[in-house]
Amino acid sequence: MVKYIYLQPDEQMPEVADEDAWLIVEASDDGRFFGSGYGFRASGEGVFYASSAESDVTLEAALATATEWARERGVPTIWVQTSPAL
């Protein structure tokens, strides 16, 4: 199960160790939502996540795609910033 932690516009995701899985979905000034992160394949190999233009259009789409990726890659938490940084 993936947990969501919502951040304030001026709040940053906490630092994570290099070997830890992480994922963040951030609002942009143009109304899109960009995701990035790091997780692991079943083999244990590390892999980066970068959202695609198709999933950036709404928060719901961004979270759906990010959640699926997080479940497959062992990411327990998705940090979510619903408003652009101030």
Give the N-to-C terminal Cα separation. 31 Å
Q: Report the order of strands and helices.
A: EEEEHE
- Write out the strand line-up for the largest beta sheet, numbering strands in chain order: 1-5-2-3-4
Structural class: alpha/beta
Low-confidence stretches: none
Oligomer: single chain
- Which band does the percent of strand residues land in? 25-35%
Q: How many helices in DSSP terms?
A: 1
Q: Helix coverage percent of residues?
A: 10-25%
- Strands, count: 5
Could you give a short account of the major beta sheet? 5 strands, mixed
The general outline is globular
| Mean pLDDT figure | 94
Cα radius of gyration in angstroms: 12 Å
Can you put this structure into words, describing what you see?
The chain is α/β, with parallel strands linked by helices and 86 residues long. It has a domain of 27 residues. The protein has one helix and five strands. Strand 3 and strand 4 form a beta hairpin. It is globular. It starts with a strand and ends in a 5-residue tail after the last strand.
Q: Can you describe this structure in just a few lines?
A:
The chain is of the alpha/beta class and 86 residues long.
